[in-house]
Design goal:
The protein has about 325 residues and is an alpha/beta fold. The protein contains nine helices and 13 strands. It folds into two domains: about 120 residues, Translation factors (Elongation Factor Tu (Ef-tu), domain 3, Beta Barrel), CATH 2.40.30.10; about 160 residues, Rossmann fold, CATH 3.40.50. A six-stranded antiparallel β-sheet has the order 4-3-8-1-2-5. The chain is globular. Bound molecules: flavin-adenine dinucleotide (FAD). Flavin-adenine dinucleotide binds next to strand 4, strand 5, strand 6 and helix 1.
Length: about 325
Amino acid sequence: MPTNTTKDPGPTLPAVEMHIHKPNDPTIGIVVENRLCTKGGNKAAGFVRHIVLDISKTNIAGRFRVGQAFGVIPPGEDAKGKPHKVRLYSIASPTGGEDGTGTLLATTVKRMIDEHWDDHSLFLGVASNWLCDLQVGDEVPITGPAGKRFLLPAAPNEHDYAFFATGTGIAPFRGMVQELLAGGVTSQIVLVLGSPYATDLLYHEEMTALAEQHDNFTYLTALSREPQPDGSTRLYVQDRIETHAELFEQVLGGERGLVYACGLAGMELGVIQGLYRTLTPEAFARYVIPEPEIAGDPESWNRKMIPRRLSPTRRMFLEVY
Ligand SMILES: Cc1cc2nc3c(=O)[nH]c(=O)nc-3n(C[C@H](O)[C@H](O)[C@H](O)COP(=O)(O)OP(=O)(O)OC[C@H]3O[C@@H](n4cnc5c(N)ncnc54)[C@H](O)[C@@H]3O)c2cc1C
């Protein structure tokens, strides 16, 4: 592996506003839409809803950017009798919101459903299930916006993009893809969306339609528990780097590329290992760490090692939870 000791400043990111409403001073969004994103008959035990809030009466209106998140404070108290804490949800809209006015903010919420660790009774996550149950007209205490790193660059047309999403990790990319394409960029954009089954692919029709309309946008799916629609094998998002090696080499082989990954914690490791297997050593050094020979073989990394190694490149953006 070659040594690249030049410190890469990465792309310039836009200035963003943060914490206009803090947890001790939340504002109120009003639900204007709440619909199921997953298809009926979905095989995985997951329910995801597209929820749109009217924030026109809040100080956040027009002041969030695509890629940021906002906070939700569910009503009631936790087991210790304290008010519930803020939960963060990615903004699934472009910077102008759902209709360009900056007043309609969408997110993509997965109901957290599990068996309780202690007694295997049904465990329902507080905020996600409360949000998914809401009806049009209901009020949601919100905070934010939050996040100053998981953003599109200030000069979007100077870059090409590889977006990797699992599950609700699609949320910020829905906004980013809409924003880039509506802004008329000529950049190459590749979105890989992973889910267990085809019935769980979120915003699939929307992304398919955008890919049909725009030659510079490629939308790829990766189904991990059933064959792909074309009958080929089960895939994880990182496997697409190898099945479409030429495309990723075009997007990430030069100086313009940026890599974004959002979704289930742990997915970033697979993406990094996929990049390691497919890209040239020079390109890998540009995205992951400038001096890979010091860090050793990424195949032997674990996800706790990643944040420290990744940060110097500033060309890979992670939002995992
Ligand atoms: C930057 C960021 C962006 C995010 N964006 C999104 C998004 O766009 N969409 C989305 O759906 N989520 C998103 N999340 C996750 C979201 O914030 C919440 O964590 C998620 O919705 C679960 O919250 P909850 O209140 O429903 O669950 P909680 O009531 O908070 O339950 C989860 C907690 O319960 C505990 N727990 C988990 N499993 C069990 C079990 N089996 N038995 C007992 N206890 C258990 C754990 O401590 C866990 O932290 C994001 C998170 C971050 C940090």
